[in-house]
Automatic annotation (TrEMBL), chains A, B, C:
Binding-site positions, Zn(2+): 117, 157, 159, 162
Binding site for substrate: 113, 151, 315
Gene Ontology biological process terms from the UniProt entry: carbohydrate metabolic process
Family membership: Belongs to the glycosyl hydrolase 42 family.
Domain Glycoside hydrolase family 42 N-terminal: 14-386
InterPro entries: Beta_galactosidase_Trimer (IPR013738), Class_I_gatase-like (IPR029062), GH (IPR017853), Glyco_hydro_42 (IPR003476), Glyco_hydro_42_N (IPR013529), Glyco_hydro_b (IPR013780)
A GO term, aspect molecular function: beta-galactosidase activity
Name of this protein: Beta-galactosidase
Active site: 152, 307
Source lineage: Bacteria, Bacillati, Bacillota, Clostridia, Lachnospirales
Span of the signal peptide: none
GO cellular component, one term: beta-galactosidase complex
Catalytic activity: Hydrolysis of terminal non-reducing beta-D-galactose residues in beta-D-galactosides
Length: 678, 678, 678
């Protein structure tokens, strides 16, 4: 893997000079404005295929070279994209196979973007040739720093080429068709396959209820996307460039399993478009924080914020302006969670088509005297002030499981609630509860190593990939605190139900067995009532909704019981010490206050080291650390100014000297790391 | 018709041992558990085609024979299914014509179930061959008791073969194209056909507004489904089996006109999946009761409950657990309404695919120590205790019309309200009002004979099949009490409007003519106010909603008038004696209380014999009778224990001695039928 | 253009005798009833193609001739339709190209109506031949008065023939592909075209986000529809008929740009189906009024109400009866706004198919003793009483811009709010405010000449067609009062953003520049607070919602400021005198009361002449005028009787003598026009 590190924060973003080649005065102004706004990085070429190769095989790179040179001469680096995110019309017209077929088996026409078959050999060949030529020309250019492969990979294709690849992929995985039939439970409804050749991808006009097929199809889509990406990376390497590569991920994107990109990209990058001012700011901040941590946890390295909006987006139902100070706060939040950049989409607004009203550093008016331009400049200045924190890492003592394969399987399963299982909400409540203790939190998949975590939240782990129950057992045995919840350990990696009791493989670890699960209508609720002598001293009654599991307790402390319905008095929260650790089991979808109070106690029980003694409402706490220094980021996403007392050893890097933090303000502090610390 | 009667209640349900052939220990345990749960009947082979005929023409029946034998040796009978509900992949791949074409003319891919063309000769040939072979092998097996033809027939196909059959069907019906044009009113919008060959089935991308075409298409779908079913029955007979046949119907299914199966099945059976605990239990019970009575009324014979869920379903938006006692109550409700069985889907949960979380007698855990298993056992024991009631019949003195052809036409017509005409609701209110008098109620079609009914409710009979007005006239003339409602008698059997006044043919019987109909927005309401001297002594004012018909009264008593709008003071309820009977006309969509109070009076006026003097809230009353004995079923679907006093001549068959019935509890009593009784 | 004027109001409507040819007694009764109801005009032949030409080339016109003669002999004129609105089955079967292809490129089947390709040469040839024959036979018949071309033109076709025409149309418009690429901004997402041949119409399975393409496609659809209509008109002229032509337009129809028909039709006609009694009557009346004025303004001549419903419609979600008096009020409203007719759909109800329950003068019952028949008769009588007003014109001193091209572009743009921009609502509020001053209002497009308007409301003029900014500038310079609003002047005629500031070309006229626009969630609101010294003496605070624009004020009076959010204190309403006129700028989506109060002041400031001194709530005021006489129409759409004092010079033409007007009642008065008046 190429080593990725910078000596300053990247500030800048997507730039489309090819739309302005006939306006040289605008191109000139742009660079002046970039410097004025402390912009040091631009992303070029993302949708430039039609300009780079206007006719098949005719490459026109001069304009790009001139832009890169001009930027470089002004100290601005280039992230260079491969243009595979949208194809020229001639390519689609001449080689129709490059266009996708949707799940209803309808061939798509040319249009939009991201509408190409990842399997098509022609598409791969054409982009390989172009990428290689780009690498040859720009791969060693001193102004070019990083490859931005394609753009926001996503979607799927059901064309005959993809069907064939899917069959090959299945054959490699299952070896025999009997094995596949067995794992997929195809005897149900007479769906047994006699050969891999008989298999077709899921379709709403065909097979749409064989969950194992659908799960494997989703896995295949991820792997085929990666396979395509590797073709692009190979082209770059063949072109002689050794620069690192990335591709920009999206917010909680269901279409791909990003953890599988871990060893493909040199640095993780993603596009963050939170809907600030829809809910309370602190609420949006928790939601964004989880995504930042999810991205950071993929490689457990600093990541890049590749896109964000300097003003209002234009594609949401309601596109609100960011209030003054919001841009700075959201930008520094990314940094606090581990980003080494603040990049925008877009530097200059396009004049036409679907994104013409998307916020930009420079808008159609074109002046640098706008509110947005000034706030962008403020961000640039702030990033320079905290330059010493660049490249520092995030160490987390606690983690929450949030796995895409589990999400896929859980949502596709026809289960107790088909309207909404509230999976993300359950993950988010536990993440928030840990964050409100002032802790860094890793957001991990089932593939992550668990060493070093003092607390591990495992909410609704419906699917256990092979051996996951053993990983959890070992984790507890060796002293970890596991918080497992309802609807866990029901199916194996092919969505086949475990027999003989659930949570599979962990009934002895938790001391309970799940016997039934009750679904509640949205207007129903139940309660968890504390048992008087529970060892955590929980004293409140909490509401639970949506799902209530019924447990048979064989060997566990019952901390709380249900308060209503025919299962009143039955266990709602249990605990068992196992090996050197603790196994908690939460039986129902509890309200947030429960998790807040539970984790407050568990943090103490598990001896998690707190960064700040008391975290007031609305305050977000993060640390980043080098070998010798720990940087503390404090941000106020509440509506009131509050004091956040910290120990005297800290020194101010950025922000006010006072301990009082105003709304949307940030303080960055540092202290030396003592060698004797645990 | 084969004679269907049993000497004990069937208890058991769908069983898919083909999913467990590699787990002989499970197959063994299953039978032990069946006996423990008093299960005496299993349904086999419903989706087994791919296992029965894994390659074209290669039949593998050994496994099935072994299962049937094993069950038989333990005293358990088999309902044997023909496997046409789902086809093997090889059949679809080799003969694509067997797959359906939807109404948009899109060929469906292999997948799901129930996705085959009923017209395809190849499909018919393949299933005929297999069915015949099954009949030859198992048709005389002493353990096999009944044929379960296919599964939940439904859906439609628009392939060229079906188009051709539809044209032939139309030609047979209309003889000349002029006749069809005339009946269908095709001159509207220039849709005249020059020959039957020009006709195509309705389509949202083609003809979708010619109501007569759509109505005939629905009729054709029913007849073609029956035609397909007859091929399967013929195969069974050719295979030498004389066992009775059935097919399982569905809850209020709009896709087929079940009354047309009357002479095709030897016994009616259906699948009941009420959503208990969503509304008040008594409300769900009324709704289920109507469906049971609808099914029973098809043949006016005991029916079979072919499927029901022992626990929670998995396909509803919210799948709630049944609270303790609910399974027993819902099972005995079926019996009270005339079922000779309580059968479940499913005996053992499948491990994979879309129904893996559907409730089952034996779940993935696999023990017999579960709550569900114990409640199933209770049902088995209860059925044995009331064994003497098996095969007894239901005699109803009152009936409600609920006709599928009417429902089709009424809903398709672009009429006063296109959002919702509240047809089912209107039927249900009248059914409930009669049930709350403690009466058995027949739910009948326009084809039923009306002799013997003292009261007949005819709500919203928009379409009159040929001669229906005469049937109603005779009914009243001979002494019946008819309650006809608004939006009745508007169109003939081809959805062509009657001229010269409505309700067609009954203006003299009712003494009124409907002049206009007002549609109300959901937020609007009107009132029906009693006339001081009305002969029924109605004294309350009732709300009406949705639809208010305006009447011209020529020769009728006006019992109630509208209270608001420009038609305040005009008739809302009228009455006329005609011949020896009474004709009531309800002009508006009245609230439930109106029907409750009306039928309380009509029951007295019509001298209907009451089974129980006073029916407390929540209590459901049914009787079943043999030649000599009448069995009274009393069930409490309310939230409180209540006393239901009954005459001393009754003797307890099942349940507590006390007259007080606790929630969800059932009492069964019997008395001798006096020969002198009317 | 043929001259269109009548000496009496047309009263009657659509009639389909071809559905009753086998019921001669009904055809006879119909004419008797027409006379009884004062019906003097019928529209024939609208969907008669299959009867007129039952086999290709075989024309059967005798029945039509007989009907026309019979009507004529009884003094009833005929509006004769060309039957292209629906085609016979043989035409679709023999020439599939006549059927449409939808935007997903799916060929439609035969069915419904209005489902033919406007480009198809065969369709054009067949209808041309038939139309010409009709013109030859009936074009000089003394009973025929007007050609009704096709019916409710609408919809679009994406077949290869249409694709080809679209490309030719584009080539004619843009000349070179570079020009098109430049105007359409195709460099965005690599969508550059290399030739016109590469272009395809928009599609949800292809290009759906290139706004300029979509806008031009919509324009093409209008022009191709007109091109088709011209073929029909040509046929009529070739057949020797010089009678005027029209085609019936629809309520606020988005599919066509009706202003382009201005010089194609001799008289504008339209079909009005308001949903009376859903909202308050006055509210529905304002909404209808706008549509009448929109239609009248196309040619600035009297128009025809071609269809309206004598009773309840049958195609709305809820189809309410018209309360007594409503039919007369709605009919006279059309006249008050400039209609020279009151025509219904339909004279006699059809027996079958989708419109069988649509209200009619004669219903299925068939008598003339119905409430509806009597109210129709009343309308006929009223029209005779006001006969002297026929042909008089409407003069408006004020106008509101409501342009279809703007509406298309505004709604398609991905902008600040994608849920709803509330464009029509903004137009309607300003229209209503002007109407409630008792004024005639023109509702105009960007193509209209602005001379003579004292006030011009320009709400949300997102798109400026070429030179529109100059037209507005001149208008103000020469003394007009312009009320421009937020979201104006953003894009040119190809939806390409203007650079260097908006509202484009009018920043100096208004003295402001729009810098940002904030979108509000539906639950949010802001306020406009009056500045103490504002010259209009506005004193109230008004709510604003949905959209709040932020202004940089360079040279304008700030009359009101925002009350909340970070832009509290910034301008919400500005004013500048420019040349001899006034330019107002409304920055936010203000509540109705604001417009009411604003226009009350502007009417005074601009010295608009008021027709009535005080307009009570619910009263609608219109005038029509000949050279010498002015007719004042006063209608009460409120719930209470109110007095409307008028000057003594008026004389009553119709209605009560008293100044008090009861709900749903109309008064028509007249006075001489003084030559000295301005």
């Amino acid at each position: 893997m190429a080593k990725v590190s910078y000596d300053h924060y990247l500030h800048g973003g997507d730039y489309n000079p090819e739309q302005w080649l006939d306006h040289p005065e605008i191109l000139k102004t742009d660079i002046e404005y970039f410097k004025k706004a402390h912009i040091n990085t631009v992303s070029l070429g993302i949708f430039s295929w039609a300009v780079l190769e206007p006719e098949e095989g005719e490459y026109h790179f001069e304009w790009l070279e001139e832009i890169i040179n001009n930027l470089y001469h002004e100290g601005i680096s280039t992230i260079l994209a491969t243009p595979s995110g949208a194809r020229p019309k001639w390519l689609a017209d001449k080689y129709p196979e490059v266009l996708r077929v949707n799940e209803k088996r309808e061939k798509q026409l040319f249009g939009g973007r991201h509408n190409h078959c990842y399997t098509s050999l022609i598409y791969r060949e054409k982009i390989h040739k172009l990428d290689k030529a780009l690498a040859e020309r720009f791969g060693k250019h001193p102004g070019v720093m990083l490859w931005h492969i394609s753009n926001e990979f996503g979607g799927e294709c059901h064309c005959p080429l993809c069907q064939q690849k899917f069959r090959e992929w299945l054959e490699k995985k299952y070896e025999t068709i009997d094995n596949l039939n067995n794992r997929w439970c195809t005897t149900f409804w007479s769906h047994r396959y006699r050969s891999f050749a008989e298999i077709e991808s899921p379709s709403t006009i065909g097979e749409n209820e064989l969950h194992a097929l659908k799960l494997d199809w989703k896995r295949f889509v991820t792997e085929q996307t990666i396979d395509f990406m590797k073709v692009e990376i190979a082209a770059i390497r063949e072109g002689g460039s050794e620069l690192p590569v990335t591709t920009n991920f999206m917010y909680d994107y269901e279409g791909l399993d990003y953890k599988k990109f871990k060893n493909v990209v040199d640095v993780v990058s993603w596009d963050n478009y939170p809907g600030w001012h829809k809910k309370e700011e602190w609420e949006t901040a928790v939601d964004c924080g989880l995504q930042h941590d999810l991205m950071r946890s993929i490689k457990k390295e600093p990541f890049l914020l590749m896109e964000s909006c300097p003003s209002a987006t234009n594609w949401k139902p309601i596109n609100k302006l960011k209030k003054p100070g919001m841009l700075l706060a959201t930008s520094l939040q990314a940094v606090a969670h581990g980003s080494d950049s603040v990049l925008y989409f877009q530097l200059r607004q396009s004049r036409g088509a679907s994104e013409k009203f998307h916020g930009a550093v420079i808008d159609h008016y074109g002046g640098s005297d706008t509110r947005v331009f000034k706030e962008v400049t403020e961000v640039g200045e702030a990033l320079e002030k905290i330059q010493e924190t660049i490249g520092t890492k995030t160490i987390a003592q606690v983690a929450v499981l949030y796995d895409r394969e589990n999400s896929w399987a859980l949502k596709d399963a026809q289960g107790p609630r088909n309207e909404n299982m509230y999976y993300q909400e359950c993950v988010l409540k536990q993440y928030r509860a840990l964050r409100e203790q002032g802790l860094n939190v890793d957001v991990i998949s089932m593939e992550h190593v668990l060493d070093g975590y003092k607390i591990l939240a495992v909410p609704m782990a419906y699917l256990f990939c092979d051996g996951y129950e053993e990983k959890l057992r070992d984790y507890v045995k060796q002293g970890g605190t596991l918080v497992l919840s309802y609807w866990s350990g029901l199916v194996d990696a092919t969505d086949r139900c475990f027999l003989f009791g659930t949570p599979y493989g962990l009934m002895d670890v938790t001391g309970i067995r799940s016997t039934e699960i009750d679904a509640l209508y949205d207007w129903e609720e139940n309660y968890a009532v504390p048992n008087p002598s529970n060892h955590l001293n929980l004293q409140k009654t909490y509401r639970c909704n949506h799902l209530c599991e019924l447990l048979e307790v064989s060997d566990a402390e019952v901390l709380m019981c249900y308060g209503e319905d025919f299962y009143a008095g039955k266990a709602a929260l249990t605990h068992k010490t196992y090996g050197n650790g603790h196994a908690y089991y939460v039986a129902a979808d509890m309200e947030y206050a429960f998790y807040h109070d539970l984790y407050k106690r568990l943090v103490k029980e598990a001896e998690v080291k707190l960064l700040v003694k008391f975290v007031p409402e609305g305050i977000s706490v993060n640390t980043r650390a080098s070998d010798k220094l720990e940087y503390l980021f404090l941000q106020n996403f509440g509506r009131k100014s509050v004091a956040v007392p910290i120990s005297e050893e800290y020194e101010v890097v950025y922000g006010e000297e006072s301990e009082v933090i105003a709304p949307l303000k940030t303080r960055v502090l540092k202290k030396k790391i003592e060698v004797n610390e645990e």
